[in-house]
Amino acid sequence: MDTRIGSLDAAKPACNDVVSCNHTTSAAIQPCVPATVINGAGGDSTLGGHLARRLVEIGVTDVFSVPGDFNLTLLDHLIAEPALNLVGCCNELNAGYAADGYARARGVGACVVTFTVGGLSVLNAIAGAYSENLPLICIVGGPNSNDYGTSRILHHTIGLPDFSQELRCFQTITCFQAVVNNLEDAHELIDTAISTALKESKPVYISISCNLPGIPHPTFSRDPVPFSLSPRLSNKMGLEAAVEAAAEFLNKAVKPVLVGGPKLRVATASDAFVELADACGYALAVMPSAKGQVPEHHPHFIGTYWGAVSTAFCAEIVESADAYLFAGPIFNDYSSVGYSLLLKKEKAIIVQPDRVVIANGPAFGCVLMKDFLKALAKRLKHNNTAYENYHRIFVPEGHPLKATPREPLRVNVLFQHIQKMLSGETAVIAETGDSWFNCQKLKLPKGCGYEFQMQYGSIGWSVGATLGYAQAVPEKRVIACIGDGSFQVCF
């Protein structure tokens, strides 16, 4: 974590140069597109105008907010940006959840809340975004810059003359924190925070003193130079060695399988994973936390691998394989069904976003998942033995009995109707709890979106996330499956 707090008398030079960092950008982010102009070139030479243009530049067109007296001036400048739409939310927690859902669809999201009373309220949503590796810009309207160092007690706080309480809370759940309380280094702090969120694919915290957004300053007198985010690169020697070792390991196997994990998203490696599956012919499964990251219409897809509660016949194929490649797995107590998976380390290749570990043997760092999977696809022999074994033992699921008139609605009948609603023009948002398990049984058509929060599991997340996802992808019909208890949490 990196914390940078601007001092009142600092006189740092503003950074108007191209911001460079190692980051593989999401498809939704256009890092070299000129920023939107307000009132002509340099028309709004203020901190608020600069922040608005930066958000538009990285692909944010909707900002979720709860107005409060510490952020009102900043919100005025965001509203003035014609390419930004300000979406008011009923509370800060929902604003954070909405920004989370938006980031899942667009690659980055943003929310704006007020100091402490709003910042502490949004913490849970930001923590969830951190656990899911989502770039989220959390902006807080902070105290007047003249209040710093005065030992004054402010409203909306817990009554202590210490303005760092909110900051300290955010330090553990964001990858960068910027406290902007003077204009001299505001440009640098804002740009560094945003670029760090994109590079690390994690939330960041930006606090902006409430009296600063509307004050003109020379560092904002021109349209901001567009971000140039250099892509991360694999170590070539490490990549070649990892591919050679993995190919030798898998080509000797009789019935190898592939299993996709949730970190396929942060590695932007879903397409590379499918390319590998197409080339090798292995049976293809997905971890429960990665549903939606792997196309279920793939001809060799065998279902969800979740130990004892896997899709029918999927666990038998995965656990009987003599070699398995897991791409981006997270083995927590949920996904491992209480750490009960019948897997053996000596049979596994574990591919993380920037690291490959082969069985009990060598590990290779500085190897990006996308590069590794693409290169491995060219080195594997075609082997569909595991899929043929699955096809041999597979028995199609039966259909629920038809309900009689006035019979209580059964869950399996309800989800049969939901299944018929799904298409490439829909997306499913699954809430924590029963919806997790019932939605896992849905078969996603090509192009159908799917999102849930399995790592953090915050009840009520899906209500705000549905709003954010729908704003981000208005062309899709979003189907949210939410338990009534979780639904009530957000109101």
From TrEMBL:
The Thiamine pyrophosphate enzyme TPP-binding domain sits at: 453-489
The GO terms this record gives for MF are:
magnesium ion binding; pyruvate decarboxylase activity; thiamine pyrophosphate binding
Mind telling me which GO cellular component terms the entry cites? cytosol
Residues annotated as domain Thiamine pyrophosphate enzyme N-terminal TPP-binding:
46-155
Per the UniProt record, one Pfam family is TPP_enzyme_N
The EC number(s) this enzyme carries:
4.1.1.1
Cofactor dependency: Mg(2+); thiamine diphosphate; a metal cation
Q: What residue stretches are annotated with the Thiamine pyrophosphate enzyme central domain?
A: 243-360
Q: Please state what the protein is called.
A: pyruvate decarboxylase
This chain's source organism reads Glycine soja (Wild soybean)
